[in-house]
Design a protein that fits this description.
Layout lengths: L7 H15 L20 E12 L5 E15 L3 E14 L4 E12 L5 E10 L2 E12 L4 E7 L3 E4 L7 H13 L4 E6 L10 E7 L3 E2 L17 E10 L14 E8 L4 E7 L3 E12 L9
Antiparallel strand pairs: 1-2, 1-15, 2-3, 3-4, 4-5, 5-6, 6-7, 7-8, 9-10, 10-12, 11-12, 12-13, 13-14, 14-15
Amino acid sequence: MQCVPKSVSSTVGAIVLAAAAFAVSGVTDADASGTVGFKLVPHRAVYDMNLGDSEEQAGIAGLNGRMVYDFSGSACEGYSVNFRFVTEFQNTDGGSQITDLQTTSFEEPRAESYQFLSKTFVDQKLVEATRGTARSGKKARTVELKEPSEKSLEIGREVLFPTEHLLTIMKSAEAGVHFVAADIYDGAETGEKVYATTTVIGAKAVNDAKTDADHVDAPLSGKGYWPVTVAYFDPSAEDASGELLPVYQLSFWLYENGISGHLKLDYGDFTIQGKMASLELYDETECPQQ
């Protein structure tokens, strides 16, 4: 029995999407509809990841790990993410397996292009690598893959990149909209998959964390956030009844400055919980006035 539940790629895909959630990037200028964008804070966040609920059929005895997320850039230059997530799974038969996901990505302002590189190691052996660039065109968005094989794809004009998707969620949340449906592309797995997503947005709240310097949430004290749950669907994976079930769901607190916390990955028969262990805010770069 493989120790990584579902598959390496499905678990990794969820973590990559979690990174995309952290990397919400918007344009600080007003958009075509007159809505002001969100200004995001460059930062480095570390999260402790542990097994939450688990049903017997999942075959998981334990899970622990650490996720490091480094976000930098500006609205005028684009945003970069360096991300690493290492986990150890223990199965009910006494076996264990260590997975190590390493990703980098860059998204240009106004979603002109999205570059990505992802490598997955299992017990220090490379088992999956994906690299490519997606670009916006007048009639469609195209993807040029370099790994795992060279290939050109069209993914449709309405498909969103991660930045656009999260910006859409934030704008919807600010406007009081509680449900968002969108197709997204983030280069996960072999770089050929587009996910359908539905997002449920809760009422805005304020973090009442202590403000003392030793508290992890201190930089977020008094900041507003929305509780968000995003369900990811593979349109090609209908069950026997024709019903489309989510591959996984990602829940988190989405702060108005782009930082995320209180993570939960839900695969149906098990969950992974993420708790912020440290948070460092970087100096912000102001865009030049036009």
